[in-house]
Amino acid sequence: MPIKIPDSLPATAVLESENIFVMTEYRAMHQDIRPLSVLILNLMPTKIVTETQILRKLSNTPLQIKVELLRTASYQSQHTDEDHLSSFYTTFDQVREQNFDGLIITGAPVENLEFDQVEYWPELCEIMTWSRTHVHSTLHICWGAQAGLYFHHGIQKRTLPQKLFGVYEHRVLKPSSPLFRGFDDVFYAPHSRYTEVWEQDIRSTPDLELIAASSEAGVYAAKTEDSRQFFVLGHPEYDPDTLAREYWRDVDKGLEIAVPAHYFPGDDPTRVPVVRWRSAGQLLYTNWLNYYVYQTTPYDLKQL
């Protein structure tokens, strides 16, 4: 089934070229069904790239999903055209009275800053507080996961000796979790970050469950016992060339950067990367939508 997004959003043409079913406003209005209402708080500087990646993952499901894009009002993006933002994004003041089936909070390249040094931190705290009463289930990604774990549960992020950068092997620690239904015993996911959260901090927090981890990359996924909050420390939505673009960007800037681990064949950055995370990334988003949003959200969102 389709995702319901504006016809003129740049992601629309990309997704349609990949044979992904994107529904028009007219067709959606004439279906006797309530679509899931999903809000995406996009904190990444490359907003068009990130919105396309996430919309691609949300699309492969038998559910109709109405997506709304949210940006911070307290920080002006320097990398996305204002016309795009004003055309396709809303601000928190415009949605604070609404309820949503799901919320996705993306990562952001600010993990070397303390949380309270991030310019939009107060606004993000307000949104995360609001999500407790206005959103059925929230999926936090990468830095968004670290921010959520700190804000909701007091778990500190820890600075790594060097950037965690590459594609890593993970294991499901709770095979009965519907989030990992259909996963292989070992799966792969990209990471690109300078900080982490510690496994013992997750395990010592009564309301949290650690559900997937990596011997190299550490904590991958945790959730609250009531399944209202999910925290994924990697980037299951990344495109095949995302890590390569990050690598060559830093090389061109003359920055010290290691070749992404387990990504280029033979660790040779001139070769085409082998994608090993696409199916697991797709399944994670699909399972979150199906088992933790669609099957448990009230039909009337005012009941949240």
UniProtKB/TrEMBL annotation:
Pfam family, one: HTS
Gene Ontology BP, a term: L-methionine biosynthetic process from homoserine via O-succinyl-L-homoserine and cystathionine
SUPFAM superfamilies: Class I glutamine amidotransferase-like
Cell location: Cytoplasm
Function field: Transfers an acetyl group from acetyl-CoA to L-homoserine, forming acetyl-L-homoserine.
HAMAP family for this protein: MetA_acyltransf
Name under which the protein is recorded: Homoserine O-acetyltransferase
Organism lineage string: Bacteria, Bacillati, Bacillota, Clostridia, Eubacteriales
Gene behind the chain: metA
